[in-house]
Amino acid sequence: MWLDQADGFAEIFKGYLPYYLLVVFPIFIIMSPANPVAASHEFSVYRMQQYDLHTVPHGCRSASFNLEGRSLTSWSMSRHCVVARIQDITIDQFVEIRNKAGALLLVLPKNDTMLTDEQKEHIKLLEMAMMQQEISAPVYFAEWTPDFEDIIKDLQHSFITDDKSGTALEAMFNTVSSNGYQIVVSAPNPQKIDSKPVTIHGKLVGRSSTPQTIVIAAHYDSSSIIPELSNGADSNASGAVAVLELARIFSRLYSSVAVRGGPSLVFVLMSTGHSLNYFATKKWLEEQLDSSDASLLQDISFAMCLDSISSGPLTMHVSKPPKAGTPAQSMKSRLGVPLVHKKINLADELLAWHHERFSIRRMTAFTLSSLQSHKDPSRSTVLDTPSESSLKTLIANVQVTARALASHIYNLTDEENTEDSELFDDALTVDESSIRHWYKYLSSQSRAPQIITTTTNGGVSGALERALSRYMEVSLGAPGVDRREPEYALYAPTRALLYVYSVKPAVFDLILTLAIIAYLTLVYFVIQFFPKFYEEYAKVITGKVKIN
User: Fold this and answer.
1) For residue 123, what are the domain limits?
2) Are residues 160 and 267 in the same domain?
């Protein structure tokens, strides 16, 4: 009985097995636990900063790539895209990657508050090193996600280079057994964008008998290696917020003729700061001083620039030490802050501080900042994010600045304890809710020059114009960059979509192909010779020759 059933099974192998395989194999594939969708991922990534300053290129010059992903320790050639956490890569490793690798993808920290002080300092110094010169390979940054963390771990444990393997067989086995990733970014070629630096200014007119003018200025853009993530809470959302609050305070004092101060006050907000050599300030000064009607800046007493004032106590930076009896010396004594003197070096690519633009035009000027040096990496970092402690420091520094400025304008002294001084104390009280609102608003979005200098009617520039216009009549200027001799050029794109595909190495595909060929060959010969094998088997079991 069972031999007859075996005969029927043999008939299947003779004529119908190939057709059964066509049905069974797809069923097995569908039932497989592997999910094809999980083999690919899509991420939003941010391209590294790219700009030209005085025709000198800086930053990333490429945008697209299609390369195999490797870790910091396993990459070896230009066909590899190095994937790593930004806090793990050293400056020396970056220099080597810049010269030899095909692309670089850095994943930002999950939460920068969890970084140690050493890690934060390392990231800031790395950003400075990356922006020193141009990079031909595409460089992108991605925000942390669990998927990215898994990809980094896979790359760290999957690949072992030949020189790190004990034997050639071990290297071959590691290559075949590893899981790889193909990383693809399809983005348009970098193109220059039309940039128009925006300057917003307004004036509170003092008593006509005193023509002196005090300028209170700040730039409101921010700078970091990632334009799309340049929030710049300290540098320089804090300075812009301080200008708005000082404008509010003194607009109340100047609204009454009886208590109006002698000098006129000019409040200025510029859209380009230290990263672009204060270009908007330069253009604005040229417009105001070189025109036939230069009434706005007549008889300048001093220009006070506010830059990064929320990270600690204030310091006064000057290009020339103020002489005794001058308005600048009066402000220093009333502020009670240390003085840092640095001469202007026109041979440098960048000016050190904002006030130097005014000093070049022979105006008395100084910068108030919490930073001790213009080379502090905190001025241009993606880690410049808002915090409650920074907000409290900003409120305190605005209060100190407002009192010092009012004391200078109205010639008040600490010894005076009159009814007028009490009224001034009430008038000089800062609006903490307003400071908090503007600080959070400005530091919650990118203010990179690529973003805020390409539109003049909306966004941050429009919001600041509307805010300043509450206290005084406001003018807005947006001069274009000279195309014949541009001082700077900005480039797009600043973001792209990145696709990550889970793949096996080419050697694995070769070996798998050989294995499939060997398997199919074996199946073919089994099908062809199974009847003969069965006849021999039947002889052994029954002792008879099977007759068809």
Assistant:
1) 36-191+495-504
2) no
Instruction: Indicate the number of domains in the chain.
Output: 3
Question: Do residues 335 and 248 share a domain?
Answer: yes
The answer to whether residue 456 sits within a structural domain is yes
Three-state DSSP class for residue 465: helix
Over residues 149-163, the pLDDT tens digits come to 999 988 887 755 444
Half-sphere exposure of 31 (CA within 13 A, CB side): 6
The verdict on 171 and 272 lying in the same domain is no
b/e map of 288-314 (b: 16 or more CB within 10 Å)? beeeeeeebbeebbbbbbbbbbbbeeb
C-alpha distance across the termini of the chain, in Å? 16
C-alpha to C-alpha distance for 467 and 202, rounded to whole angstroms: 11
CA distance 100 to 78: 6
Tokens of 60: 């990333």
One domain, residues 322 and 218: yes
How many CB atoms sit inside 10 A of residue 68's CB?
19
Domain assignment present for residue 42? The answer is yes
The structure's pTM equals: 0.84
Chain CA centroid to CA 397, Å: 27
Q: Rounded to an integer, what distance in angstroms lies between the CA atom of residue 105 and that of residue 113?
A: 22
DSSP string, 207-219: -TT---EEEEEEE
**Are residues 277 and 221 in contact, defined by beta-carbon separation less than 8 angstroms?**
no
The answer to whether 253 and 427 are in contact (CB under 8 A) is yes
Instruction: Give tens-digit pLDDT for 291-327.
Output: 656 677 878 999 999 999 999 999 999 999 999 999 9
Of residues 441 and 419, more confidently modeled = 441
The answer to whether 355 touches 318, Cβ cutoff 8 Å, is yes
Compute the distance between CA of residue 306 and CA of residue 370 in angstroms, rounded to an integer. Answer: 10
69 CA to centre of own chain? 22
Cα–Cα distance for residue pair 548/531, rounded to 1 Å? 11
Do 162 and 459 touch, CB atoms closer than 8 A?
no
Element (H, E) at 103: strand 103-107
In this prediction, residue 493 carries a pLDDT of: 93
Domain membership flag for residue 485: no
Q: Are residues 167 and 92 in the same domain?
A: yes
CA dist., res. 269 & res. 263, Å (int):
20
User: Is 272 found in the same domain as 164?
Assistant: no
Domain harbouring 296, CATH code: 3.40.630
Question: Whole-angstrom Cα distance, residue 367 to residue 315?
Answer: 8
H or E segment and range at residue 408: helix 388-410
Q: Is 15 a domain residue?
A: no
Do 242 and 322 sit in the same domain of this protein? yes
- pLDDT-derived band at 43, boundaries 50, 70, 90: very high
C-alpha–C-alpha distance, residues 309 and 234, integer Å: 7
Distance CA 195, CA 479 (A): 9
Higher pLDDT, 544 or 101: 101
366 and 232, same structural domain? yes
